[in-house]
Amino acid sequence: MSELVAALQATTELTVVIAAESDAPLTAPPGIRVTRVTRSRSKSATVLELMRGVPAGRTITAAFYRRRNARRVIDEMVELHAPDVVFTHGLGGAALCAGLAPVSRTILDADTVDPDTYRRLAADTPGWRSWQWALDVRLVARWHRRHLPGYGGVTVVSANDVELYAALSPEANVVLVPNGVRTPSKVRPDPGGSQLLFLGDLTYAPNNVGVGWFIDQVLPQLPGCVLRVVGEGAYFAHTRVQHAGFVADLADEWATATLMVVPIRAGGGTRLKVLEAFAHGVPVVSTAVGVEGIGALPGVHYACAETPTEFIAEIDALLTDVAGRQRMAMHARQVAEAFEWAACTAPLLELVHRVAPR
Predict the structure, then answer these.
(1) Which one, of 178, 142, 148, lies nearest residue 61 by Cα?
(2) Would you tell me how many other CB atoms lie within 10 Å of the CB of residue 3?
(3) For residue 22, what are the contacts with CB-CB under 8 A and spacing of at least 6?
(4) Farthest CA pair distance, the chain
(5) Architecture field, domain 2-180+341-355
(6) In CATH terms, are 2-180+341-355 and 195-337 the same topology?
(7) N or C: which end of the chain has fewer CB within 10 A?
(8) What is the pLDDT of residues 33-72, one digit of tens each?
(9) Where residue 136 falls among pLDDT bands split at 50, 70, 90?
């Protein structure tokens, strides 16, 4: 968001207002004003929203995000500022903004191919939650077909996503806006040791399920390793798991991590955490899903692992081969250099100007 604002400020006078529902500290970048939304959602309110929403064509996911407090703040902001463009994120953002701003002047950031995301989650999530994802697969696909054509633009982060969304809704204005990164000018020195890093918002189901699986299935077989989990959300009780919570400046995390693990088995789009690890010279051990959409090659740019046995073998190999992990980090950095923010925000900048009324 800050990269987009910086690009717009070079040519346009603008005011950017964000409604943020977060318990994490919020420091707004220059040019952005943040309004904090009180987090509130009772179980009864969720059930009521679900009962009203599904017959109306909304997804189950929308019931968890269509929060009254947030919609009230957004409605006030739209009335006060009369924005030329509204930029909202995912099915949750669509549910929050529905009916509050003109859809034709709204850009929907659809950074995950939702039907595919939900299909993977249904297969991978243990227990009763799997039924929720399975039911939403069909509802999400129906919602996309009905609503995507009305948006001023729909942004996705990979060429594969463009094809999948075009197949779902051929009339939608789908624009490729890759995730980006700023590559540091200097390569970090290898810290040695055996510290593993997982980075991600643990309130996001693919992250939560993935790191939980890793802690349960893989970490016990790596007795010399400590897993540092960075991101707000769930707590996993384990003697060799360090919970850092939300970290505003990741410089120290990149400097001290020997390897980053990405045991993501569901989700769509591309992962910023992988691009940032590549840019900072942190070798990555990941599933194929974890690195999809950025053109990374297994064995060259990252170590690919799907099963517990494969994760254990790849991590052990990289921890004992300093030259090998440095070589992999060097190749991965070249991938990151192709995703510099200036190039990635250019198509979004063009879309914003196209959607704004003249």
Answers:
(1) 142
(2) 17
(3) 36, 39, 232
(4) 62
(5) 3-Layer(aba) Sandwich (3.40)
(6) yes
(7) C
(8) 777 776 665 677 777 777 777 777 778 877 777 888 888 8
(9) confident
Q: Which residues of 138-166 are buried (b: 16+ CB within 10 A; e: fewer)?
A: ebbbebbeebbebbbbbbbbbebbbebbe
- 195-337, CATH topology level: Rossmann fold (3.40.50)
Amino acid letter, 155: T
How many angstroms separate the CA atoms of 296 and 111, rounded? 19
Q: How confident is the model over 323-340, as a mean pLDDT?
A: 94
Residue 170 has pLDDT above 80, yes or no: yes
Mean pLDDT along residues 142-154:
92
How far apart CA 168 and CA 172 sit, in angstroms, is 9
B/e letters for 16-35, b = 16+ CB within 10 Å, e = fewer, are bbbbebeeeeeebeeebeee
Neighbours of 323 (CB within 10 A): 8
Domain boundaries, the chain: 2-180+341-355, 195-337
